[in-house]
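Researcher: Predict the fold of Putative RDD family membrane protein YckC.
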Amino acid sequence: MGRMNASFGRRLVADFLDFFVFSILSFMIFPWAIESYLNDWTDGLWWNLLYVLYGTIVPVLWGGYNIGKRILRIKIKRIDEEKVTWKNMILREVIGKNVIAYLTFGITTIVSVFMIIFREDKRAVHDLIAGTYVRYD
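Model: Structure tokens for Putative RDD family membrane protein YckC follow.
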């Protein structure tokens, strides 16, 4: 494959940018969700749900980008080089990043970090589940 896959550092910075921008926008649009998150993290279900929805919906509507990835010029693609679909993003964000991470007490998240760092194709657990990868634009 002649593509340049995004490094762990670039993906991590994109995730931090997303979290930061999403937090500010959420506070302005949904102050009740952020307030519950700040007051007691166990009550932050609404904020977490909104963040998962953001991570799932925006790349489908924006051609593989979310805000952080767009700023850093990386995007989510399917391994067949097509644009991501609802199925890809639900498998990636909901199942791969959240449900499985929750069921494994975060172990798959840690494993994913090492996969991105050491695998030649830089694909994490959620990428393998969804048939995606993250590449430089």
